[in-house]
Amino acid sequence: MTPPAQPSGVSRKAARFVRFCDAFEIPILTLVDVPGFLPGTGQEYGGVIKHGAKLLFAYGEATVPKVTVLTRKTYGGAYVVMSSKHLRGDFNYAWPTAEVAVMGAKGAVEILYRSELGDREKIAGRVADYENRFANPFVAAEKGFIDEVIMPQSTRRRVARAFASLRTKKLANPWKKHDNIPL
């Protein structure tokens, strides 16, 4: 039986892929469904932060056209790492089903309202309120983190149009002998 892929290994592979695309001028399309970096000592010992930093660095350094589509869960630092606007993503779209927030509604409510954990109805109401107020793409679009909320069936057309508009993109990072990649 093959053990499941480790998050650190996945981040490393993704970083290598992004750097490969950038090296050969291949535009990057990123489809995002990432519930976040999982907390825990096992992940910390496995280097989740170090390997996540490699992916963050690769996307931030890439100068090729970058289009991102948020499809479902997009939480916290893991969302930022996945070619977000914060990392110079050129076009960021989201489906209406995307949940864009610091963390999932259930976890956030359990932290914010831990004194009410005994009351299931109250907690369920708080979760619904959090989802409506924060965990949706419209709030992120309002803040400029997403260019547009699009319907899933129009994704191919919007992505093609975005890449066509980026055909002449010229972006150069400041000259330096080499970067200091997180090893």
Please describe the topology of this protein.
Elements: H1 7-23, E1 28-34, H2 41-46, H3 48-61, E2 66-75, H4 76-81, E3 91-94, E4 99-101, H5 105-112, H6 120-133, H7 137-142, E5 148-149, H8 155-165
Helix pairs in contact: 1-3, 5-6
Describe the structure.
With 183 residues, the protein is an alpha/beta fold. The chain has a domain at 7-98 and 136-158: 2-enoyl-CoA Hydratase, Chain A, domain 1 (Alpha-Beta Complex), CATH 3.90.226. Helix content is 45%, strand content 14%. It is built from eight helices and five strands, in the order αβααβαββαααβα. It has helices at 7-23, 41-46, 48-61, 76-81, 105-112, 120-133, 137-142, 155-165, and strands at 28-34, 66-75, 91-94, 99-101, 148-149. Strands 1, 2, 3, 4 and 5 form a five-stranded parallel sheet that branches. Strand 2, helix 4 and strand 3 (91-94) form a beta-alpha-beta unit. It is globular and about 60 Å long. The chain starts with 6 loop residues before the first helix and ends in an 18-residue tail after the last helix. 25% of the residues are buried.
Tags for this model:
2-enoyl-CoA Hydratase, Chain A, domain 1, single chain, disordered N terminus, five-stranded parallel β-sheet, 5 strands, 183 residues, 45% helix, 8 helices, alpha/beta, 14% strand
Task: Give the gist of this structure.
With 183 residues, the protein is of the alpha/beta class. Helices cover 45% and strands 14% of the residues. The chain has a domain at 7-98 and 136-158: 2-enoyl-CoA Hydratase, Chain A, domain 1, CATH 3.90.226.10.
